[in-house]
């Protein structure tokens, strides 16, 4: 999430009543979780296992629960509860705007776009030329929709990211301040859900086609001219490169890369990153020739047992 202006670390720390180390004029230009950080961003970390990852990331301001040596060119904000203070910051800079009208404030819809009855459109949304939003669709805050996009009935774009911290009293949700960006000539079927990024974007590339009842998790980036068949489910922070085909009921774990031109056959489960240009099958999936040989061997197993 880009901030409306550049703030100093002293100003940011003051908003959450925390101490800091580093130059008090150190600039903060954005707030992001670890998968999306860039130079100028603030990121939080609250577990020793991830200290090094956060401190060595592109983020230049780290909200942390321990006083450690401050890396050169960075600043630290010391907090007893970084997750909670991170949420306080994102709610401050991106508060929830309650809405009772069917179209929110600061939303721009191109005159050539077709919006069917019973469509809900949130605040700060952009809808491009000749796009069609079919009945029952929900377009949440900050969504960006390009030109010649079709969004099917009862599909929800930009709902809250599924990102929680486990606490003794239950699960606490990270405040969503990200968005969804859908590029030109994308088609999305009925009853799909595409979650907003936590503090960055979930992105659907130009020319990609998505079937009915598909779920795409927060901060996932799908490339150009991909095909996703019905019941595909992608977790958060997945990268799907260009021209990938995912057939029906493929499931994918988080923080995985599916390489350009890969094809994953129906009902496969993706547990680790896949090279491009190959066909995969199974759960956990592997290259299709090997998996089919494994299935053939399994079919012979009863015969082999009888011989023993």
Automatic annotation (TrEMBL):
InterPro entries: Hexapep, LpxD, Trimer_LpxA-like_sf, UDP_GlcNAc_AcTrfase_non-rep
Domain (UDP-3-O-[3-hydroxymyristoyl] glucosamine N-acyltransferase non-repeat region) ranges: 26-91
Keyword Lyase: no
Family matches, as Pfam families: Hexapep, LpxD
This protein's GO CC annotations: membrane
UniProt keyword annotations, A-Z: Acyltransferase, Lipid A biosynthesis, Lipid biosynthesis, Lipid metabolism, Repeat, Transferase
GO biological process, one term: lipid A biosynthetic process
GO MF entry, a single one: N-acyltransferase activity
CDD domains from the UniProt entry: LbH_LpxD
Name under which the protein is recorded: UDP-3-O-(3-hydroxymyristoyl)glucosamine N-acyltransferase
Lineage: Bacteria, Pseudomonadati, Bacteroidota, Flavobacteriia, Flavobacteriales
């Amino acid at each position: 999430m880009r901030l409306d202006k550049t703030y100093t670390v002293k100003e940011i720390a003051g908003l959450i009543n925390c101490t800091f180390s580093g130059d008090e004029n150190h600039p903060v230009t954005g707030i992001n979780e670890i998968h999306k950080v860039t130079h100028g961003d603030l990121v939080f970390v609250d577990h020793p296992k991830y200290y090094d990852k956060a401190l060595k990331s592109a983020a230049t301001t780290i909200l942390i629960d321990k006083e450690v040596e401050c890396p050169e060119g960075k600043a630290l904000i010391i907090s007893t509860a970084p997750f909670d203070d991170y949420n306080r910051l994102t709610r401050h800079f991106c508060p929830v705007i309650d809405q009772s009208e069917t179209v929110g404030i600061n939303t721009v819809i191109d005159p050539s776009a077709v919006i069917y009855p019973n469509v809900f459109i949130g605040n700060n949304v952009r809808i491009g030329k000749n796009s069609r939003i079919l009945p029952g669709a929900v377009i949440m805050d900050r969504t960006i929709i390009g030109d010649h996009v079709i969004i099917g009935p009862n599909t929800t774009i930009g709902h809250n990211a599924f990102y929680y911290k486990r606490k003794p009293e239950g699960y606490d949700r990270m405040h969503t301040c990200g968005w969804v960006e859908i590029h030109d000539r994308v088609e999305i079927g009925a009853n799909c859900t595409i979650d907003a990024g936590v503090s960055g974007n979930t992105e659907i590339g130009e020319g990609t086609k998505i079937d009915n009842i598909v779920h795409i998790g927060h901060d996932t980036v799908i490339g150009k001219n991909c095909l996703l068949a019905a019941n595909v489910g992608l977790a958060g922070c997945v990268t799907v490169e260009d021209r990938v085909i995912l057939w029906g009921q493929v499931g994918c774990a988080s923080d995985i890369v599916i390489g350009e031109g890969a094809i994953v056959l129906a009902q496969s489960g993706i547990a680790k990153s896949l090279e491009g240009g190959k066909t995969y099958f199974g759960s956990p999936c592997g290259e299709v020739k090997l998996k089919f040989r494994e299935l053939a061997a399994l079919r012979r197993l009863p015969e082999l047992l009888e011989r023993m």
